[in-house]
Structure formats: structure tokens, C-alpha cells
Design brief:
It is built from one helix and 25 strands. With about 350 residues, it is mostly beta strands. It has a 25-stranded mixed sheet that branches. It starts with a helix and ends in a 5-residue tail after the last strand.
Length: about 350
């Protein structure tokens, strides 16, 4: 009996290989509308679906969902794969939850191929608070005037023209792009690249692992922590800025404002700072093994020793500290600085 077992297994495998392929295409369309008012909230769970949110001038939340899935299986049995969207209104919250189902299916398969795509198109007044939870789907929100909270795994997030109290983004491998933001900003990201431009924030807290940060033409106070990624901040106006990076490089260009406290730290990366000639601050640069370069009038340097430079620009006022363990540091002042 024992000797017959391998032969039985082989026979079963050959039988399954010889079985006919099972193929199914699923197409679903969903459309719901809700009357809304200020103070209400949309909770969306969109899975791998892409989301587009656009404002309009009606006090109505309108949701359209299109789904198409192709499933091919080589094996025995059947599957009851499907897609449904649950709509629910409870108090001041409307929830929209899309989910794939496979209830009641019995399947012994060797190979399964699944291809699907689906989209959520949402129109609503911009005062509706938004909360979205997704996996691989992309999220795009434009022209919003209420708080936004978005959590995605591998999806990209694009925010345009957002003016509100608070924006919170949590993501893993997707990328984030923000253009035209006025809000408190809180971002937690893993392998994501962040591109932020034309923003004005009262407080910005960014926590990153391996992705790069590219920021330009922004005003406000920022607290940035990055692991292996580079941080590049151009045309910045800030009163308080704290940037810490492990292995990444830091580039900062200050073009105006009255910086009170700027702190830049990197372990193995280099630091480069460019200052507008009108900025008044004292500075200190320190590196254990890296090279220190100050491109400013000689009288600006008040202290110089191995691994350390300090000085004052335009009578001081603000304070800038830059420190790197192994990387070089360069401080430049535009023409005309004193």
C-alpha cells in the first residue's frame, strides 16, 4: 500500500492538469447618493480600487463604483467570486465599503490567475470630512476644504488645493504628491517618495523610512525624520525647522521669513544650506569626519576649530545648527550677505 501512494499522487496531479480551465468575468456597477450637511463625514474602504474625489456645489454625496474582474482557474470545482459595495448612513457618518467575496465556493486548483480593476468616483461638497482606507489603490483628492485622513498600502496619493484644519496620511510603498496645501500636515511613510509644493502649514510632522522628500515653495514649521532617504527643501520660509536623517543627505534653501530655530542632523549624509542674504541668524556647523565649508564673508565667522565653525549673519537673531557624523557640511550665503 505504501508503494502505491506516490503513484496515486501523480495520477491525481495529472488528472488535475488535464482538467478544463475555469474562467469568469465579473462586471459590477454601483451608484448611490446621500443628502449631506456640514459636520458630516465619509468613511471609505476601497481595497485595491482607485479613488477620485471632486468637489461640487450640491449638498449631495454621489458615489459611482465600477468593477471588472477576470478570474482563470485550472482545477476542479467552482468559485463564487463576486464584488459588492455596502452603503450605510448612521448619524453624521456615511460609510462606503467595497469588498471582494468568494462565499460558498469549492475549489481544488493548480493555478489561479486573477486580474481586476475598479474605480470609485466621488462628488461631494468640499465641507464633507474624508476618511479613506485602502490597499493598492490610488487616491486623488482635489479642491477640498474639510479634514482629510488617508491610509494606503501600495497606492499613490495625490492632493491638490487642500485648505482645512488637518491632513493625515499614512502609507507604505506608494508615493505622495501634494500641491497647494494649507493645513496641519502629518505624514507617516515607509518606502514612499514625498513631493510637496506650494504649501502653508501651521505644523508639519513627517516620518519617513527609505523614501526621499522633495519640498519647494513652502511656508511653516516642520519636524522631519528620515531614515535612508534624502531631504531636499527649496525656497523655504520657516520659523522652526527640525530635520533628522540617518544615512540620507539634507539640502535646505531658506529664502525669507524670520527663522528662530533651525536644526539639521545627519549621521552618514552630507548637509548643504543656502541662505538668502537678508536672513539674520547665528550658525554653528559640526562634523566628526566630514569637511566644513562656509561660503560667506570672512567677518561672519566668529569661531573656527577642527570639526567646528560658528558665526553670525546680519546681526544674528535666529539660530541654525547643522551636525553630521561622517558627512560634509556646506553653508552658502547669496551675494550681498554680511
Amino acid at each position: 500500500m505504501t508503494r502505491l501512494l506516490p503513484a496515486c499522487v501523480a495520477t491525481l496531479a495529472l488528472g488535475m492538469l488535464g482538467s478544463a480551465a475555469f474562467a469568469e468575468t465579473i462586471e459590477r456597477e454601483f451608484h448611490e447618493s446621500f443628502d449631506v450637511r456640514e459636520g458630516m463625514r465619509l468613511h471609505l474602504e476601497h481595497g485595491d480600487g482607485d479613488v477620485s474625489v471632486e468637489p461640487w456645489d450640491r449638498d449631495v454625496l454621489d458615489i459611482e463604483v465600477h468593477y471588472r474582474g477576470d478570474v482563470t482557474i485550472i482545477g476542479f470545482g467552482r468559485t463564487d467570486a463576486d464584488f459588492v459595495v455596502d452603503f450605510r448612513e448612521r448619524g453624521d457618518e456615511i460609510s462606503v465599503i467595497g469588498r471582494e467575496t468568494a462565499e460558498g465556493g469549492i475549489l481544488i486548483g493548480i493555478n489561479t490567475k486573477r486580474r481586476y480593476e475598479y474605480t470609485y468616483t466621488i462628488k461631494a461638497p468640499s465641507y464633507l470630512e474624508l476618511e479613506s482606507l485602502g490597499e493598492d489603490g490610488d487616491v486623488r483628492i482635489r479642491g477640498w476644504r474639510a479634514d482629510v485622513e488617508t491610509v494606503v498600502d501600495d497606492g499613490d496619493v495625490i492632493l491638490e488645493d487642500i485648505q482645512t484644519g488637518r491632513v493625515t496620511i499614512e502609507m507604505a510603498d506608494g508615493d505622495l504628491e501634494i500641491r497647494g496645501l494649507e493645513a496641519e500636515l502629518f505624514v507617516t511613510a515607509d518606502d514612499s517618495d514625498l513631493t510637496i509644493s506650494d504649501c502653508k502649514v501651521s505644523s508639519g510632522r513627517l516620518r519617513m523610512e527609505d523614501g526621499d522628500l522633495e519640498m519647494s515653495d513652502c511656508v511653516g514649521d516642520f519636524d522631519v525624520v528620515s531614515d535612508d532617504g534624502d531631504v531636499r527643501m527649496r525656497s523655504m520660509q520657516t520659523s522652526k525647522l527640525d530635520v533628522r536623517s540617518e544615512d540620507g543627505n539634507i539640502y535646505l534653501e531658506l529664502v525669507g521669513g524670520k527663522p528662530n530655530d533651525v536644526n539639521l542632523e545627519s549621521d552618514d549624509g552630507r548637509i548643504e544650506v543656502e541662505l538668502d542674504s537678508s536672513i539674520a541668524l547665528s550658525f554653528s556647523l559640526a562634523s566628526d569626519d566630514g569637511r566644513l565649508v562656509v561660503d560667506a564673508p570672512e567677518e561672519a565667522i566668529t569661531e573656527e576649530r577642527r570639526g567646528y565653525r560658528a558665526g553670525e549673519l546680519n546681526g544674528g537673531g535666529g539660530r541654525l545648527r547643522a551636525r553630521s557624523s561622517d558627512g560634509s557640511i556646506r553653508l552658502s550665503v547669496s551675494s550681498g550677505g554680511t
